[in-house]
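#lab-general

N.A. 3:47 PM
ok so I finally got the sequence cleaned up, no stray characters, all 179 residues accounted for. can someone with queue access submit it? mine expired

B.Y. 3:52 PM
send it over

N.A. 3:53 PM
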Amino acid sequence: MRWLMILAGCLLLSPAMLSAQRIPAGTAVPVMLNSTLDARKNRPGQEISARVMQNVLLPDGGRIPARSRVLGHILQVSRPTSTSGSRLVCKFDRILVRGHSVPLTAALRALASMMDVYEAQMPTNAWADYGTSVSDWNTIQVGGDAVYRGSGQVLADNRVVGSSTIGGDVTAKLAAMPD
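B.Y. 4:20 PM
back already:
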């Protein structure tokens, strides 16, 4: 694969953010890149940015607002060879929340194409439900968690791992994947 296009992901925040902003380690922040990453065009040191796709509720009642910017840069780019695909390494190291730049350490939780992100917003229940309120929809999020908005539950492997709001915000406790 000669190019890499990353359209959406979910970042996990680290303890570096705990002190100033009360954002707990492990907080999931769904983001979408503002541009395509391409191993043929991008260069190390180039700045990249993403935007937060939904309000992220915090335990103290605060939130990271939707449309906040997450900033970072490209660390390494290697083009494909006859034995391997291309490789593009990037790092997100700060988030702009209400005009304040806050340092962060992030890890990728899930990665999806634009079509996968679109499908995660559409109901999985019957087609007749398209005419119902969004608060009744069941969806499958990027990363595989099932969101049952009618009951307000988020499930992973038949375990309740979070909740959803009538407005569509989803909070979930993330767990490490066994593999």
